[in-house]
Amino acid sequence: MEAYQISPENLPDLTIQRLTPCDITNPLKKTGIRFINDDASVAVYANSAQLQNYLKFKNTDQPPTFEMAGPREKIHFDPDKTTAAIVTCGGLCPGLNDVIRSLTLTAVWQYGVKKVIGFRYGYAGLSSNSLAAPIDLTPETVEDLHTVGGTILGSSRGHQDPADMVDQLVANDINILFTIGGDGTIRGASKIAQEIDRRNLDISVIGVPKTIDNDITGVERSFGFLTAVEQAREAIVGAHNEAKGAYNGIGLVKLMGRDSGFIAAEATLANSDVNFCMIPEVPVRLNGDGGFLETLKTRLHQKHHAVIVLAERLEITDIPKQEHTETDASGNIKYPDIGLYMKKRIEEYFTEKNVPISLKYIDPSYIIRSHTANSEDSAFCLKLAQHAVHAAMSGRTNMVISNWNQHFTHIPMALATTGRKTINPNADLWQSVLIATGSVVAPKHQEQARLHLLS
Amino acid sequence: MEAYQISPENLPDLTIQRLTPCDITNPLKKTGIRFINDDASVAVYANSAQLQNYLKFKNTDQPPTFEMAGPREKIHFDPDKTTAAIVTCGGLCPGLNDVIRSLTLTAVWQYGVKKVIGFRYGYAGLSSNSLAAPIDLTPETVEDLHTVGGTILGSSRGHQDPADMVDQLVANDINILFTIGGDGTIRGASKIAQEIDRRNLDISVIGVPKTIDNDITGVERSFGFLTAVEQAREAIVGAHNEAKGAYNGIGLVKLMGRDSGFIAAEATLANSDVNFCMIPEVPVRLNGDGGFLETLKTRLHQKHHAVIVLAERLEITDIPKQEHTETDASGNIKYPDIGLYMKKRIEEYFTEKNVPISLKYIDPSYIIRSHTANSEDSAFCLKLAQHAVHAAMSGRTNMVISNWNQHFTHIPMALATTGRKTINPNADLWQSVLIATGSVVAPKHQEQARLHLLS
Amino acid sequence: MEAYQISPENLPDLTIQRLTPCDITNPLKKTGIRFINDDASVAVYANSAQLQNYLKFKNTDQPPTFEMAGPREKIHFDPDKTTAAIVTCGGLCPGLNDVIRSLTLTAVWQYGVKKVIGFRYGYAGLSSNSLAAPIDLTPETVEDLHTVGGTILGSSRGHQDPADMVDQLVANDINILFTIGGDGTIRGASKIAQEIDRRNLDISVIGVPKTIDNDITGVERSFGFLTAVEQAREAIVGAHNEAKGAYNGIGLVKLMGRDSGFIAAEATLANSDVNFCMIPEVPVRLNGDGGFLETLKTRLHQKHHAVIVLAERLEITDIPKQEHTETDASGNIKYPDIGLYMKKRIEEYFTEKNVPISLKYIDPSYIIRSHTANSEDSAFCLKLAQHAVHAAMSGRTNMVISNWNQHFTHIPMALATTGRKTINPNADLWQSVLIATGSVVAPKHQEQARLHLLS
Amino acid sequence: MEAYQISPENLPDLTIQRLTPCDITNPLKKTGIRFINDDASVAVYANSAQLQNYLKFKNTDQPPTFEMAGPREKIHFDPDKTTAAIVTCGGLCPGLNDVIRSLTLTAVWQYGVKKVIGFRYGYAGLSSNSLAAPIDLTPETVEDLHTVGGTILGSSRGHQDPADMVDQLVANDINILFTIGGDGTIRGASKIAQEIDRRNLDISVIGVPKTIDNDITGVERSFGFLTAVEQAREAIVGAHNEAKGAYNGIGLVKLMGRDSGFIAAEATLANSDVNFCMIPEVPVRLNGDGGFLETLKTRLHQKHHAVIVLAERLEITDIPKQEHTETDASGNIKYPDIGLYMKKRIEEYFTEKNVPISLKYIDPSYIIRSHTANSEDSAFCLKLAQHAVHAAMSGRTNMVISNWNQHFTHIPMALATTGRKTINPNADLWQSVLIATGSVVAPKHQEQARLHLLS
């Protein structure tokens, strides 16, 4: 995932907050497991130019580093007296159950904590007017969770009052709270951690970053992303077959990605049938000479079929935003379904041009989100969860488990909520997409080029 | 892949050899593609402790870096006069056809090279007594290659005389040779590059590293590895079902990995049914108190079924090597099938102990090797191939395309052939396996532990 | 597929029309292949009650039979002088390319016909104002077709003038026309055959029945149907995970089936997560006491999630048809998207009842239609195509290849276009659905019943 | 499955044995479910020639029929007092858990039986020296069983004393015993039923036929078979890729099928890469002019790769049986691994001929057997199990649930154990294989034929 960077101005203090004291010997000590030193760290910038840029900006000669994740020899919580809780928030993502399972197994089997419970239906389940009581999570109940998509705990979107949620944690005797969710969830978790801090309570809050869009800052790859790409590829294969199955057939696939086009870009590279890939990071012009619609017409004229992949939101330069976004009662922007919008525009254009087309629209979102994790995501969830338990038992809090430059790391919630990770159009990933879709070709092949993307 | 490191003593000069001059303007310039500067670089060590260790060892304050991959503004080869050739060597690996396809498409479409050919059946096809003539590779012939496993070019093992192979390159007017293969292949490619150098020929040799075992030094992840893990998981699921389907059922799965247990370890983490995972890097004792066989007996006594995953070679501490390795006529070590060996030992042990078992042995090797690349590997092959073409066109030679710390990199063939990348038993990956298989557990759960692995 | 029957009044004369003479020795004779006698036949009614019903209705004691398919010792067409043509019509269906491939291979390899061509984009390609010229189909071009979904020939809907199409057949020297399509296509093919007959031309027209809905009379199972069920199951699994992932979560899946609910019913049985299955054959009442919406509310109250599967059209008893069907300019009924209609009704109902729900709508149609054939469909397509070639070469015409009671059969086009095959709600298949969805349960479990379907 | 027939001489009395009285009203009556009349029946012979043959042989004009399966209005067992038991025997087969699940759900939910238990590890668990106690099967414990391969009950091979087993049934208060297994299991079940009869006990014994080989007489298709074909196809695709990946590459796949080659034949048709398919029903000659080995040499000479599919046992005409079969202590024939035997013979032959080959052997047996049921098998298992419960509750015994000519049927255990169902080499299925593999081709293509199979 070389396609993005953390800009120096966004880099907060990377120190991880800890509960004290931390003087209990890790029960795994007797097993011979290898512990990680507290000063072990991982470079933020492996790219030399980025590093130089940072050092100059901060006027320092100290390269920034993330704390390394892993089991610590001394821990903060006494397992026999510790209850952990898990909550899953936001939309479904492949691997949620894998994370729940591995958090539970590691807490119980390796550390021997007293109890693990799961709050139901997101933060709503952590509020005083919860819809459903928390459930016990034991090795028996979680044993086969990884074979099922979705989340056994249920989920919901939306926020709750941090003070109320802390009350519930106290009422349930919770010592550790694992929140599995995206940047909204992490923001909520950070508020919980701050409220805990304010009340001087002995509760750790650890985030496991969940974003099917792969768009959390400081997180190299988020779980579920590779599964999403795999399933997206299936939908694109279908779109390609539909496109070729009709004269001037168009297969239009809308994929997840409100702010970041990682799924659309990576699925385009995983599949060699995509002619047009459009993402939020790269503005598109629809009309006029060399605009998308005209280029699509050229493509159809040459090949009589085309495959188009869209992320969930586009930056269309020649259409007033009002036409494809709305504002709700509270003034929040409400995006329309960009896929249906583009379908309409394409059909209108070709009707006007009197060119017959056959457009098939595929929106595989829920099929993707609800899928079981593929093997790589499954293994990744397991590792994330193990490291989240290590971090929590050592008393760390207000942090998120992450991975970066070949290592698992601890990052402050403040970093994970600093804007979105997006594709840098000038870097590797997007440039590969331009090549793979034939948007850039040797001048001598310009005429036969399979497709063109426009900005 | 945090589980390994490059030790300072193995790190050769990382400068990449180049053919000169390099003064032709890249035909992609007009397309607006972003070029990479020649001094762009990526840190070898993101782990701070490893970096300190290196700096101390080399007595320097210059962190080592890899050259960054990507298209260059000035190139060495005039596309109109350039013929590229591809050869695939060694055992099958998911993604071979993806690489062939993308090398061809990028060379032809983006750079406009004159011609791409493929030598048949490995280095044998590059020798004067080749079994089959090379074939033309065009956009049309490679278009759907990614939907098929194996290699359209055929492959073979074994070496050929470098001088003879260079003769064939000259005879075929080859300017660029892409070799897709493992460390033996890279060693051969390096000899070809050296012979070219000696003869002062204008031919670039670029390696695309292929190792289903993921064991090439300096390569963070090799293509086909994730697909192998995915397919290995399928086999383990089957083994688990077979094991549970019989009283004292044992499912024994042998996976690839002669020197490195990456597939076995990662598949164990991707699947939560494995009780014993054994790899070459971690010695195993079979007999005696606390030995593997006794622990297996305990496991069966507790649960009446067990799943065992083996890599292709094991370090067995209490069995003379002669019993499970042989030497061939030339004195080379010949390993027996460790899976069949362990099957026999397990059956003998339980016969002797008069404990009835039902052991099912699964060797999924060829099903795994011949599989099509999964989506992540498919996208990865495409990127590797694009970067290999960029490197070649810019006149780089005697190097291998790699990926490291979020970037694509150039590494000298000398690094890729410096010993194998192996799992560090003290680092992350293996420690996660120990936790996941229950080999380490809180003392209070020792009795119910699902399994134990021994060294 | 025991769920339907052919009613005696619909059974036309089952004699198959033949071109004469039929005196050329089958070139396969020398190979030792076994030939089928022309009087070999298969019982229409295996069900004794149905047979009695027929005999009584027709006042006969002769059980009706289908002609058995298979190679004949004497054939009508001289292979060396025979050109065959293939056309695919209507929506995509898994297996189209398998049929094209096997028709071509059998015609060329086994019979040695001179040439096979494919008309492009359905009957439109067979008209004088075709959009694209026909393409040659050779063993080389079709070799790997079975690995790709869709149809290499392209398809279209809609009719063409039979006289014009026969002109094109003559102009292209076609002796055999294979039409792959549903009942509209077969109707068109029959008109072509009648026009051929009228002109006294020596051209055979053979239909390979294609209907993803499995709704052609006289055809026990149509190709692509099992693949459709398999893919539908995937979508339902996703819907179930989405439903469980939210408080009062509802997963709503719309499947193919305008007149017949075979896909919805069979996918419901293939998946044990469906609570409500609705098909065109079984009327549904939405409102009121014991209506669908109230029962859904009860289900949510009990379990807090529900999975609903709909076929493409429903018979809603308490809603005026105008509300969910339209009439186009020509007076043809235009069905709205029943899935979106039901989504709206459900959301309105629960809004009114002030019950929060989270409904996720999945429409997997194009993903299903464009899929490659699964193994059973692939084998089935191959057999159908082989038998279609045998039938054509023997001079049969105006018929469709079918399968019935364990044998491949010849059925007159007149039968295949006699109304639709539909699910008999009183027979096996639907009764199994009622049991599997818990619509019928022992009275003592009525309270906990998982769901109820209403008529 | 048109490839076999039931010969008249093997057809026993088809009357189904019943326990009396049968006067309890089916609890489903109130639900409006449709009941099947006791005289509903299905024709044994749909093929007119087979029917004529039977009528002549038996000198009768009464076509033979099977009793139709389905719920009866009057039943024998009072649900409130009924305990049912399930046992699974023999090797794993996809769908075992589906059957267990659906038997349990239908018995509990629809009929309201008191209790369902499962005996562990086959008939061994039904004996007085059982290795493990039976377990309770409730809707909760079986709910997700269909997502897992294997059998939750465990299985074993081998027989037990019928008297002892009946003692255990009595000791456990069992009223209905469902046995899921192949012809050995059915033979055992029939002995249990006879012993019950002898003792005049009120226990029904119903078999659900399980044979991955699809070789039980009177059973049109057995569950798990389609899944086996699907997985076998995957292995063949791999073998094909391995074969093409080497000069004179040979992919050799051994599939299940000791007496009947259904899996090998159907997988060959589902996959278009097979050049040689060998099954027990069709004798093969290895050596000499036109023998298999010579033909393989010709094939390699033409194409340089070949794919061979073998069933588990072959009839080799020119090799003394002793060479490839053994006899064990009790005089039973012990077959060696035919795959390894053929591998050796092929390698020896080409060594002798001095032709270099590269043979890859794939034995996917346990991966296939342990797989979850595909959607069609899953739906089929559900239907079989529902009908088995209907049959049992109505007091039927000593019978097996089957499917035939589009209907579910009851067949006497005596029929199911009357020899094996095998492929008729003169009928449809095998003739399609001959065509698909190019074993028969038009004389003019003889030279280029893709392959030849010999007998």
What are the defining features of this structure?
14 helices; homotetramer; 2 domains; Rossmann fold; alpha/beta; 455 residues; nine-stranded mixed sheet; four-stranded parallel sheet
The Rg value of chain A, from CA coordinates, equals 24 Å
Helix content of chain A: 25-40%
Total helical segments of chain A: 14
Q: Count up the domains of chain A.
A: 2
For the biggest sheet of chain A, the summary is: 9 strands, mixed
CATH topology of the largest domain in chain A: Rossmann fold
Q: Overall pLDDT of chain A, averaged?
A: 93
Q: Tell me the greatest interface.
A: C-D, 78 and 77 residues
* Termini gap of chain A: 23 Å
Describe the structure.
The structure is a homotetramer of 455-residue chains. Chain A is an alpha/beta fold and 455 residues long. Chain A has 2 domains: 8-223 and 373-416, 3-Layer(aba) Sandwich (Rossmann fold); 226-366 and 425-448, Rossmann fold. Chain A is 34% helix and 16% strand. Chain A has helices spanning 48-58, 96-110, 139-142, 162-171, 183-199, 225-244, 262-270, 292-303, 321-324, 338-352, 365-369, 375-393, 413-416, 428-436; strands spanning 17-18, 24-25, 41-43, 65-68, 74-75, 83-88, 115-118, 135-136, 176-181, 204-209, 249-254, 276-278, 305-310, 326-327, 333-334, 358-362, 396-397, 399-404, 407-412. A 9-stranded mixed beta sheet of chain A has the order 3-4-19-18-10-9-6-7-8, with helices on both faces. The first copy, chain A, has a 4-stranded parallel beta sheet with strand order 12-13-11-16, sandwiched between helices. In chain A, helix 5 links the parallel strand 9 (176-181) and strand 10. In chain A, helix 2 (96-110) crosses helix 12, helix 4 crosses helix 5 and helix 7 packs across helix 14 (428-436). The longest helix of chain A has 20 residues, at 225-244. Mean pLDDT of chain A is 93; it is low at 450-455. Chains in contact: A-B, A-C, A-D, B-C, B-D, C-D. Chains C and D meet through strand 3, helix 1, helix 2, helix 6 and helix 7 of C and strand 3, helix 1, helix 2, helix 6 and helix 7 of D.
